[in-house]
Design a protein that fits this description.
584 residues; alpha+beta; five-stranded mixed beta sheet; 15 helices; 30 strands; globular; binds adenosine-5'-triphosphate; binds magnesium ion
Length: 584
């Protein structure tokens, strides 16, 4: 590709409305242009990279036994009525009418269409398992499209769907997809973690999200610094050691005038925060207008040194949202001001205890009386402790729940893919069944598997850039190398560059020949901005010695390579770094 003829409209200055680095650099490197909010044209460089991302995905999906097909972007409302999602999907679903006033939508995902396809074609367990995928444009009318390709409204997704005869088969397929995802993101050179994700309202299922670690991510990833444990905040657990076991004398009420914060109480009563049992009142339907009703509130017990994870609590209660109750409600329901609540004698209110509470001996709690606490409290003896629940929020530095000696770290992550065990959620409601060996109709057991193609590219840039521009990982770089002719006025140099350009192409190296009549400084700036993995600099001084300068964009030393060996040397670098040519 000759830069002088290529459509690579680079920008010198930072575009004003681009908040994250991948968005900024994709605009500046002439890769994308906005058409409308969250809707972009992919220019040739972006399109080349996107095709490489797709190619890696296709290779690994095919290798894992999936087959590619292609479904339409426009979908009839009838299918969405069948699944029940027409009503519940919300405004992200862009609905439209055709000339006959029939309802359609722009597909944000394809469970309905694929389930309809398979129920019409697959009759017998002998035709299973079946694993189908596509790479296709999705539309979601996101409320806040932003960050360029990271959160668009129109975007490229690989979406796959599997159909198995039973749970065991479905789980094996799920594991195969999970493994394929590890290979896909690994081949792209990304630093990622597969996290156990929350499956929300679909109970009994499981899911993993593939998160690229980057500060601009929208989610927190909790992961172990020594094993491969990783989870979203709403799922993450920590190994929390119980305080040393002690005899618990008879419970006693003591005055704690004006002392209510955990650390102050612990100090005042000469104990440690891990022996305190905090009692927090939560509202399970905040903002709702229904009349005062005790069943709306719940008391949550957790150890003084730990925090309640509101998403875990919400999931446990089946509430979309929970919030701390107001001071007035606390006072009304416990009979004491905020800071003095406790489980002993607390009646008429649902009480849920976090698992950490069970390990407390010789504990301290509020006395449900102003300026008073109870000491020498033993859970189970002094107040009922039924089944405990995990409501604890994992913190950085906590012990890993899976391995010995590992500690948890928390970083931001970008969700680039998700694998999801659907079970019979769609096949059940859409009556998609097959006949088992006994001739009995059974619903397909399904899984679904998504990868954001554009988001993956953006995430790769978030992870691979410096203050001058992009630093492409070889496998998804738009081209392998940038051949910069330092002085286009020198005929000998131009002739040598043309020879090398020809040799590189012949060697299978994808090379951008910067043959623009620009100053060397401008070209070098653009080379660093575009971030092609290998820079080849051809100048008069080198030519006099018969060499070119070759260096990796990612850093490291500059090598002088004899002109005649340059094509082979560069090809070796490309191969060593996992470069592949774009399919024709
Ligand atoms: P998010 O929580 O970020 O909105 P999601 O969980 O709704 O995403 P999925 O339904 O799991 O998304 O879609 C599969 C993949 O598609 C995601 O993992 C992500 O990589 C990509 N994706 C989803 N929404 C967008 C978007 N608006 N723009 C770009 N990529 C997206
Ligand atoms: Mg997701």
């Amino acid at each position: 590709m000759r830069f002088s003829q290529a459509f690579i409209p680079t920008l010198r200055d930072n575009p004003a409305d681009a908040e994250v680095v991948s968005h900024r650099l994709m605009l500046r490197a002439g890769m994308i242009r906005k058409v409308a909010a969250g809707i972009y044209t992919y220019l040739p460089l972006a399109w080349r990279s996107l095709r490489k991302v797709e190619a890696i995905i296709r290779e690994e999906m095919d290798a894992a036994g999936a087959q590619e097909l292609r479904m339409p972007g426009v979908q009839p409302a009838e299918l969405w009525h069948e699944s029940g999602r027409w009503e519940v999907y919300g405004r992200e679903l862009l609905r439209l009418k055709d000339r006959h006033e029939r309802d359609f939508c722009l597909g944000p995902t394809h469970e309905e269409v694929i389930t309809d396809l398979v129920r019409g074609e697959v009759r017998s367990y002998k035709q299973l398992p079946l694993n189908l995928y596509q790479v296709q444009t999705k539309f979601r009318d996101e409320i806040r499209p932003r960050f360029g390709l990271m959160r668009g409204r129109e975007f490229l997704m690989k979406d796959g769907y599997s159909f198995d005869a039973d749970e065991t088969g479905a789980e094996a397929t799920y594991r195969r997809m999970e493994a394929a995802y590890h290979k896909i993101f690994g081949r792209m050179g990304l630093n990622f973690r597969a996290v156990e994700a929350d499956t929300g309202q679909i109970g009994g299922s499981f899911s993993h999200e593939f998160m690229v670690l980057a500060d601009t991510g929208e989610d927190d990833v909790v992961y172990c610094d020594s094993c491969d444990y990783a989870a979203n905040r709403e799922k993450a657990t920590a190994k929390v050691a119980a305080p040393e076991k002690r005899e618990t004398p008879d419970m006693e009420q003591v005055a704690t005038p004006g002392v209510s914060a955990v650390d102050e109480v612990a100090g005042f009563l000469k104990t440690t925060p891990d022996r305190l049992i905090k009692t927090l009142l939560f509202d399970s339907s905040p903002g709702s207008s229904f009349d005062y009703n005790k069943t709306r509130y719940v008391a949550v017990l957790i150890r003084g040194d730990r925090e309640v994870n509101p998403i875990k609590l919400g999931n446990h209660l089946g509430s979309a949202e929970v919030a701390l109750a107001s001071d007035a409600v606390v006072e009304e329901l416990t009979g004491a001001p905020l800071g003095f609540s406790g489980p002993v004698g607390l009646t008429g209110l649902r009480v849920i205890a976090d698992a950490t509470v069970a390990g407390v001996t010789d504990g301290v709690t509020g006395a449900n009386a102003a300026d008073a606490h109870l000491v020498h409290v033993l859970p189970g003896r002094d107040f009922p402790l039924g089944d405990t629940v995990d409501l604890d929020s994992a913190q950085a530095g906590d012990a890993c729940p899976r391995c010995d000696g590992g500690h948890l770290a928390i970083r931001r992550g970008i969700e680039v893919g998700q694998v999801f065990m659907l079970g019979t959620k769609y096949s059940g409601v859409m009556n998609a069944t097959f006949l088992d060996p006994e001739g009995k109709a059974r619903p397909f057991v399904m899984g679904c598997y998504g990868i954001g193609v554009g988001r993956t590219l953006a995430a790769a840039i978030e992870q691979n850039h410096d203050d001058k521009g992009i630093v492409w990982p070889m496998p998804i770089a738009p081209l392998h190398a940038d051949l910069v002719v330092m002085n286009m006025k020198s005929e000998a140099l131009v002739a040598a560059a043309e020879d090398l350009y020809r040799d590189l192409n012949a060697a299978g190296v994808e090379v951008l020949l910067d043959d623009r009549p620009e100053r060397a400084g401008v070209k070098l700036n653009d080379a660093e901005l575009l971030g092609l993995p290998i820079l080849i600099l051809l100048g008069d001084r080198g030519l006099a010695k018969g060499v070119v300068e070759v260096r990796a964009r990612a850093g490291g030393e500059t090598r002088e390579v004899p002109l005649g060996e340059a094509a082979d040397a560069v090809r070796a670098m490309v191969e060593a770094a996992g470069g592949s040519a774009i399919g024709r």
